[in-house]
Amino acid sequence: MFYLSVFLLIASILASSPTGGYAPGSVTCPSGSLTRKAIGLSPKEVSWVEGRKTNTNAALATFLENANLTDFDVQDFLSSNSPTIGLAFSGGGYRAMLTGAGELAALDSRTNSANNGLKGLLQASTYISGLSGGSWLVGSIALNDFISVDQILSENVLWDLDSSILDPDGANVIYDSAYWATISAEIAAKQLAGFKVTITDLWARTLSYQLLTQSNPNDGASLTFSDISTFDSFTSQQFPFPIIVSDGRSPNTLVLDTNSTIFEFNTFEFGSWDPTIYDFVQTKYLGSNLKNGNPVSSNSCVEGFDNGGFIMGTSSSLFNEVLLDVSQSGLPSFLQTLVNDVIINPVSDLNVDVAYYSPDPFYANTGGFLSDIVNKISGDDTLYLVDGGEDGQNVPFAPLIQPDRNVDVIFAHDNSADTDLNWPDGSSLVATYQRQFAPIGNGTHFPYVPDQNTFLNLNLTSKPTFFGCDAKNLSSLTSDYLDVPLVVYLANRPFSYWTNTSTYKMAYSYEERVGMIQNGYEIETRFNTTLDSQWSACVGCAIIRRSQERAGIEQSEQCQQCFAEYCWNGDIYTGEALGENYSNDGLVSGTEYYNSSNVAGISDGGLDLFKRE
Ligand SMILES: *[C@@H]1O[C@H](CO)[C@@H](O)[C@H](O)[C@H]1NC(C)=O
Ligand SMILES: *[C@@H]1O[C@H](CO)[C@@H](O)[C@H](O)[C@H]1NC(C)=O
Ligand SMILES: *[C@@H]1O[C@H](CO)[C@@H](O)[C@H](O)[C@H]1NC(C)=O
Ligand SMILES: *[C@@H]1O[C@H](CO)[C@@H](O)[C@H](O)[C@H]1NC(C)=O
Ligand SMILES: *[C@@H]1O[C@H](CO)[C@@H](O)[C@H](O)[C@H]1NC(C)=O
Ligand SMILES: *[C@@H]1O[C@H](CO)[C@@H](O)[C@H](O)[C@H]1NC(C)=O
Ligand SMILES: *[C@@H]1O[C@H](CO)[C@@H](O)[C@H](O)[C@H]1NC(C)=O
Ligand SMILES: *[C@@H]1O[C@H](CO)[C@@H](O)[C@H](O)[C@H]1NC(C)=O
Ligand SMILES: CC(=O)N[C@H]1CO[C@H](CO)[C@@H](O)[C@@H]1O
Questions:
Q1: What is the DSSP code (8-state) at residue 395?
Q2: What is the DSSP pairing of strand 241-248 with strand 409-414?
Q3: Is the beta carbon of 521 within 6 A of some atom in ligand 1?
Q4: 49 Cβ contact list (under 8 Å, min separation 6)
Q5: Is the CB of 439 under 6 A from ligand 9?
Q6: How many helices (H) and strands (E) does the chain have?
Q7: Is the Cβ atom of 458 under 6 angstroms away from ligand 4?
Q8: 299-308 tens-digit pLDDT
Q9: Which residues are CB-contacts of 253 (< 8 A; sequence separation ≥ 6)?
Q10: DSSP label at residue 39
């Protein structure tokens, strides 16, 4: 079974990048425009989601039947309602990837564990988004034909993080030099094919050795993000629609704020819903030279630019910084030049984390309003993309709050390092909440959330918290308040393992990986439901809430109790700051759901470069 899937993967890899390697290659252009305005979903996504709904409805029926909701008729409900569920996985390096993996595994019906009350919710979800470290999770799972976390752990072929990317085989210098030589040749080939390369290409290739299958003869060098659309598990709509997020940034600046343009990659399309771009291009033809969406020359389109590792590398480009520490003496001269350029050149230094998308697919398009901002990010023939968490929105909500996607409930997995001790404090939600009020928000909406102090001091990060529980109260945000998703917020928290490792910890032993993943599983399941036997019913109440509000159905007594327990009720913390005491140990000491004797200490060998995600 395993060998068979590897074989199938190899077969599809051979069919992707026309060069059979990392370099993109020329193909004949398809007819017609390769871009479209961001009006509605792409026809391909519409038809995929339609197929997906059959599967999610069946999985949701099973989940709701098992969740033991009282005064609720599952079949009756599903005969006229079909809630759309989105899952979001934040950035935060391997911490976010591994903790997120445990959270994901808790929702996966394939996970080999006792009933946890949530299994099958992955199968019931329509969308899954990731950025930076979260993109490694979503991307590597999707690009490996939706492999399960269980399979990754038991086969131990993916996510080998025993040694850092900088030193992939420990002390084995010969293996290392072969590794760097291969990577150098691949990136040089991309450059030779006429594409600008940056340190993001180097980051992308190294990352692929860990995230894409090692049984693959070229470690994902020719595996593209558009290839996902050819996988059996995708064409039969077995798993949610994967989306990876990245930010646009003007060249030679470090400015990123509310007004930054957010880009998404999905297997069909790449582009932005923001008014600054408001355009999508077919992912498969990224790298093609387009004018107003049409190929400049009909026999010179490009395929293979949308390399899967390159897209994950773009979303996590903050980690380019790590590569500046690599021992120069071990590197081929081509890579030495690439790395040295950003070390010694002050202008390049500002661009250390930039990925070049050149030619810019949206160059010379007619643009949206806010065209001054367009000119800054795509004013020449290159589109400049950086790490998806750099705008402070470290949980990738943007794709899930697009009204066209009709998402009813978002499970927000926040593994950010906001506090000094690397725990989340809700900053990402605050940033997404605020963005809706700027012109760049362009009709997206997000429920009310409080400030970070409230998150910490009212225990909104110490157990799951629901936001936007009562749609009517969102009528001050939009008249379409019933379409604003309810957010189930799950912040990183220690149960059996210290999952607040540094964002820049670059190596994890097998035992550390298992510890991180298990703690993620416990975050999602409320410590395997031991803290609340009603947890799965409460999750069910959150999922059905918007449908019930649309139909004017009163909540059951049980759901009202759940909402009293898990909804943020609008309170703002104004008392004496507990902040310092809170961050002294990252948790409220003495809580019933935390037992320090279960938590093994870990040594943190991570680099501490930035504290942004
Ligand atoms: C929770 O469930 C997981 C998966 O079955 C298991 O590995 C772990 O030991 C359980 N933890 C507790 C505290 O029961
Ligand atoms: C639902 O109830 C059944 C029967 O009482 C029980 O076996 C099952 O564990 C319950 N499920 C959950 C998620 O609590
Ligand atoms: C974002 O843009 C709007 C106008 O387009 C402007 O009013 C606002 O000040 C900008 N915000 C930031 C943080 O630059
Ligand atoms: C937060 O949790 C702690 C520990 O369980 C508890 O003592 C405190 O009252 C809680 N605060 C609020 C506002 O619920
Ligand atoms: C309800 O809406 C008001 C604004 O009208 C807002 O200040 C408050 O935080 C909201 N409450 C909740 C629980 O979302
Ligand atoms: C915070 O901790 C200090 C000692 O570190 C203690 O004196 C103080 O009472 C604590 N404050 C609260 C609100 O718990
Ligand atoms: C993790 O959190 C604990 C408790 O808050 C703290 O003692 C420890 O220093 C933190 N570790 C890191 C790497 O920040
Ligand atoms: C904490 O865990 C240890 C070891 O699992 C156990 O012996 C102890 O009773 C637990 N303490 C509490 C307060 O639950
Ligand atoms: C809802 C909304 O405001 N949508 C706008 C988003 O931006 C595009 C491009 O400027 C407009 O055409 C839409 O009307």
A1: S
A2: unpaired
A3: yes
A4: 41, 126, 241
A5: no
A6: 20, 16
A7: yes
A8: 899 999 999 9
A9: 350
A10: S
- Amino acid occupying residue 573: Y
At residue 413, the 3 state secondary structure works out as: strand
CA-CA distances (angstroms) from residue 138 to 209, 391, 419, 514? 16, 20, 25, 18
Contacts for 449 with CB less than 8 Å, ≥ 6 apart: 426, 429, 430, 433, 455, 467, 568
Q: For the residues 79-100, what does the mean pLDDT come to?
A: 98
CA-based R_g, the chain, Å: 23
Report the amino acid identity of residue 24: P
CA dist 253 → 27, 353, 354, 445 (Å):
35, 11, 10, 29
**DSSP-derived 3-state class of residue 240:** coil
What confidence tens digit (pLDDT) does each residue in 178-221 have?
889 999 999 999 999 999 999 999 999 999 999 997 556 688 99
Determine which residue's CA is closest to atom 3 belonging to ligand 9: 442
**Three-state secondary-structure class, residue 468:** coil
Cα 532 to middle of ligand 6, angstroms: 29
Residue 581 pLDDT class (50, 70, 90 cuts)? very low
| Dist CA 36 CA 173 (whole Å) | 49
Q: Which of 66, 69, 535 has most ligand 2 atoms within 8 Å of CB, for mutation?
A: 66
163, with CB counted inside 10 A (0-12, 13-18, 19+), is middle
Q: Strand 127-131 vs strand 241-248: parallel, antiparallel, or unpaired? A: parallel
Q: Is 337 exposed, middle or buried (0-12, 13-18, 19+ CB in 10 A)?
A: exposed
Coil, strand, or helix at residue 320?
Answer: helix
pLDDT tens digit sequence for 465-510: 999 999 999 999 999 999 999 999 999 988 888 899 999 999 999 9
Q: CB 296: neighbour CB atoms within 10 A?
A: 12
Q: Could you give the C-alpha distances from 395 to 425, 428, 589, in angstroms and in order?
A: 12, 6, 27
Structure token digits, residue 333: 């001269």
What is the model's pLDDT at position 382? Answer: 85
How are beta strands 262-266 and 269-272 bridged, if at all? antiparallel
Give CA–CA dist 330/326, Å, rounded.
8
Q: What letter represents residue 609's amino acid? A: L
Tokens representing 145 are 């034909």
Q: Which residue has the tokens 């490792």?
A: 501
* Furthest-apart CA atoms within the chain: distance in Å: 69
Evaluate whether 267 touches 229 at the Cβ level (below 8 Å). Answer: yes
Phi-psi region of 307 (alpha: psi -120 to 50; beta: other; left: phi over 0): beta
Pocket test for ligand 3, best of 258, 373, 375 (most atoms within 8 A of CB): 258
Do 371 and 378 form a contact (C-beta atoms < 8 A)? no
Continuous segment of H or E residues that includes residue 493 = none
Sequence-separated contacts (24+) of 463-468 with Cβ below 8 Å: 463/493, 463/526, 463/531, 463/566, 463/593, 464/488, 464/489, 464/490, 464/526, 464/535, 464/566, 465/489, 465/491, 465/566, 465/567, 465/568, 466/542, 466/563, 466/566, 466/567, 466/568, 467/429, 467/567, 467/568
